């Protein structure tokens, strides 16, 4: 449908013209404001959802790895061969063995349960970004036979331990003595502290050297598994399937191998965020829809107010389609202005949310995300332009749909009936 200059001119003139009925202008303004607020809220909320997803993935992969290979009973006896063969595969950048087990940590009067992970410092630094989150010390301070330990910052705080303190690690496997079964104890020196920003890890993870972990848990030459880093973390599920098929091909003298990727290990987190993002998009789109369909009442009243004008234009030769286009332009312009203002407002907030939220928290002395309750204690934002374009297009389409019925009614006005009492 082609729009002629006079249709565009009249439609825009009706939008900005002073009205005798101020209620129509008020409804138009509230429709515009409602669309703007809905669009802005959609952009900000989806940006925050994207930020949470990105931040969660970054922090998890700071401690976890893209892929993990383990065997039955959570042990690998031929880990060096598996690590070597995995490195030869396409897309695999690095590998590192690990031992993981539960333990009870004790210092002074403090006792805390934790996951103890035995690592090779140089290899571990290649498969995870833990080294960049060290608050004190470094991964290389873990040396075989020296029994050093690196604690999460919150775990160290709960124990009351500091750098250089001696922490007792109690393994759950007991040892038999003439007096009975007693816990296996070993004293470790705190040589480092890390802080990922996720309470789960900061309050529940401790790192020791792989050789020290093997002695503590009597693993011998075995490890719990091998961790792999890939060139593209989003290819992890496909690569994991290929590696599992390769490792479990006969002949296989070591039993079944289990290959898991980061999307499986933390699937609940990412599925929850993705589901919440979809639900919030639907809910906030309904807000935009309600504001957009206020345009219906605006145009219905505008059509009633302009019946005489419509009749005169019809008698001067305007076609029903031209009348319809005039009111579509009038209603669409309200939607466009509201959408553009909302998009600009939403983009500005989304890009500056890291500054806005601390300002509000400081102003009212509140904390939106307590670190001992939530996995992420700050409010991240990641503005995705494809989301912005989807929101803008959706808002415009809803506004355009809202104009169709009243514009169609305007095109059906009979000039003779409209001018009878004029």
Name the helicity range: 40-55%
Q: Tally the beta strands.
A: 10
SSE order in H/E notation? Answer: HHEHEEHEEHEEHEHEHEHHHHHHH
Rg over alpha carbons: 32 Å
Using the alpha-carbon principal axes, give the shape: elongated
**Total helix count?**
15
What does this structure look like?
The protein is of the alpha+beta class and 422 residues long. It has two domains: 5-59 and 269-419, no CATH class; 67-262, no CATH class. The protein is built from 15 helices and ten strands. A six-stranded mixed beta barrel has the order 2-3-8-5-7-6, surrounded by four helices. Strand 6 (166-177) and strand 7 (180-194) form a beta hairpin. The longest helix is centred in the first third of the chain and has 42 residues, at 22-63. The radius of gyration is 32 Å and the shape is elongated. The two termini are 32 Å apart. The model has no long low-confidence stretch (mean pLDDT 81).
What is the gist of this entry?
With 422 residues, the protein is an alpha+beta fold. It is built from 15 helices and ten strands.
Helix-strand blueprint:
Layout: H1 5-16, H2 22-63, E1 67-71, H3 79-87, E2 92-107, E3 110-119, H4 121-127, E4 134-136, E5 148-152, H5 153-159, E6 166-177, E7 180-194, H6 199-202, E8 205-209, H7 210-216, E9 225-230, H8 236-247, E10 257-261, H9 262-265, H10 267-305, H11 307-315, H12 320-351, H13 353-364, H14 385-411, H15 415-419
Parallel strand pairs: 3-8, 5-7
Antiparallel strand pairs: 1-9, 1-10, 2-3, 2-6, 2-9, 4-7, 5-8, 6-7
């Amino acid at each position: 449908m082609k729009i002629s200059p006079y249709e565009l001119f009249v439609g825009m003139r009706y939008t900005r013209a002073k009205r005798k009925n101020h209620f129509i202008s008020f409804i138009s303004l509230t429709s515009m404001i409602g669309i703007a607020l809905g669009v802005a809220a959609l952009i900000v909320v989806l940006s925050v959802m994207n930020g949470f997803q990105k931040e969660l993935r970054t922090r998890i992969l700071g401690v976890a790895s893209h892929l993990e290979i383990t065997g039955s009973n959570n042990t690998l006896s031929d880990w060096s061969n598996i690590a070597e063969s995995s490195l030869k595969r396409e897309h695999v950048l690095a590998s590192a063995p690990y031992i993981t087990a539960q333990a009870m940590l004790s210092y002074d009067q403090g006792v805390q349960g934790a996951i103890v992970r035995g690592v090779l410092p140089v290899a571990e630094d290649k498969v995870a970004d833990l080294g960049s989150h060290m608050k004190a010390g470094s991964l290389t301070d873990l040396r075989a036979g020296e029994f050093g330990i690196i604690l999460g910052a919150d775990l160290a705080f709960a124990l009351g331990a500091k750098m250089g303190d001696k922490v007792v690690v109690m393994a759950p496997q007991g040892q038999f003595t003439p007096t009975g079964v007693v816990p296996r104890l070993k004293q470790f020196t705190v040589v480092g502290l890390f802080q990922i920003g996720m309470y789960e890890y900061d309050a529940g993870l401790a790192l020791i050297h792989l050789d020290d972990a093997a002695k503590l848990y009597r693993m011998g030459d075995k490890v719990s598994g091998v961790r792999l880093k890939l060139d593209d973390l989003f290819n992890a599920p496909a690569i994991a399937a290929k590696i599992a098929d390769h490792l479990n091909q006969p002949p296989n003298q070591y039993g079944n191998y289990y290959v898991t990727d980061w999307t499986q290990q933390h699937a609940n987190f990412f599925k929850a965020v993705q589901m919440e993002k979809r639900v919030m998009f639907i809910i906030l789109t309904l807000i935009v829809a309600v504001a957009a369909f206020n345009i219906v009442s605006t145009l219905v009243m505008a059509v009633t107010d302009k019946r005489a004008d419509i009749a005169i234009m019809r008698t001067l030769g305007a076609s029903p389609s031209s009348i319809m286009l005039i009111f579509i332009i009038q209603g669409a312009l309200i939607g466009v202005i509201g959408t553009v203002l909302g998009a600009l407002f939403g983009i500005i907030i989304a890009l500056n949310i890291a500054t806005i939220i601390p300002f509000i928290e400081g102003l009212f002395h509140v904390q939106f995300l307590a670190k001992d309750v939530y996995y992420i204690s700050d409010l991240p934002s990641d503005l995705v332009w494809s989301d912005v374009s989807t929101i803008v297009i959706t808002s415009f389409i809803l506004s355009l749909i809202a104009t169709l019925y009243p514009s169609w009614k305007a095109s059906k006005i009979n000039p003779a009936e409209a001018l009878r009492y004029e």
